[in-house]
């Protein structure tokens, strides 16, 4: 079977950096409209370039529909897909290429916020094709033999299905003989539901793919502002020298979602917000804030520093879970003026469910840099509005010489807005201009909005960056096995503590900032959430 509309292995264009394993800073565009960046490369490097086949298993599923195809189209629109890249959708439903292509278009129309450009769509749709495989049936993978040619094209196998199928896919691909050392696999989070199941999945995958071939994705690591943490922290002496317990009082990370369960009750109810969001996205953000400077931007250096942070997380156990954690579940409420159902009224809901849709934690990191600096993390569904941000609160000054103007000098705050309205701002106190007898102070903001500063009409989401890096073979922004397992060790302890103390979730109204208990979590330490 030939892939729809794709010429077999046309003129190689580039991919100079297949193995450099560094975060790519410059966008590289394909040669159709730009000079070939490899034009002056030694012949041996040109020879090492191979075009890529991206194979998406679960191509009709939610992740593919809402995230993957949108991201791939946006890469196409930005001329960031190689001219010879092909995209093969695999799922278990009857479709031909035309029906699948129409399905992708319909999803773009529904989920892409921008206009679909005809010329871009023509280029993009020419890359698409579809194959029906029941992923539990080994022999059906043999169909891939007619499509994939591992010796001339690199296969990037994206597992956009439930982890229960990962083992099947690995065996199926092996059985079909379509893998070689250059093949890659991209694995979605959460990997398992605890340390044990995560190890089982990793072990099964390791029988077929070496660790270097495995790309464990966490789409938050592709988000512009998360990556900007590296720049902010390690390219600016003003922050580098003020980033520890001497100057920082505490740190808040909020990942508030407006969405509810979105038809994913069966998955979500078995998972909960702690495993769905905190075990991966929030802990990854935390490691980027807390890690020591890596030696360089190589995958190994960054991963090593992140693991050290995860190892230093103080365990939360049954003895302290009560004062350090809050679980919540939303009840019916209002969002943007419309009534929305409670968690237990969602489609397919189990009315007795005690799964949490909100979690807030006080996290302590037992190392030299962060001694005595709490990190407060919270994430929830159906909250007031979508807001993901990091707020770094600097310490109060030891003495106030402006008593008349400000009884208590407010803390300086550095806010990193991850989404929406990506940017960074710093709250500082300024003198109000004037010749009054007394100096008047006012809170002001040094405000850097990415869209205004960099004149970008739209900023890529996490998936664009990461799918591209997976196709380029750069593992820097993907997670190592050790990192994920370490994160599970810490999260399992919280889950065990909740089970042990029979901790039931506190109710919060949809459209609010979470249960009142989460306010108390900070109030206990004389602090308050950034609202
Ligand atoms: N959805 C999201 O926003 C996110 C999802 N993820 C992860 O991505 C992965 C996929 O999630 P999601 O897209 O939500 O899941 P879905 O269930 O929506 O999609 C999975 C797709 O795989 C198909 N499928 C299931 N069994 C087989 C089979 N035996 N053979 C062939 N195809 C099969 C399903 O078909 P059918 O419909 O017939 O079952 C469906 O089209 C999961 O690991 C999830 O944790 C990670 C981050 C976000
Ligand atoms: O991984 C997941 O992330 C989404 C939130 O992603 P965002 O980029 O929109 O912030 C979340 O809704 C979903 O439950 C979870 O599986």
From TrEMBL:
Natural source organism: Crenothrix polyspora
Pfam families in the cross-refs: G6PD_C (PF02781), G6PD_N (PF00479)
Binding site for NADP(+): 92, 134-135, 189
Family annotation (InterPro entries): G6P_DH, G6P_DH_AS, G6P_DH_C, G6P_DH_NAD-bd, NAD(P)-bd_dom_sf
EC number: 1.1.1.49
Domain called Glucose-6-phosphate dehydrogenase NAD-binding: residue spans: 55-228
Protein name: Glucose-6-phosphate 1-dehydrogenase
Catalytic residues of the enzyme: 281
Record function comment: Catalyzes the oxidation of glucose 6-phosphate to 6-phosphogluconolactone.
Domain of life: Bacteria
An annotated Gene Ontology molecular function: glucose-6-phosphate dehydrogenase activity
Family indicated by similarity: Belongs to the glucose-6-phosphate dehydrogenase family.
Keywords: Carbohydrate metabolism, Glucose metabolism, NADP, Oxidoreductase
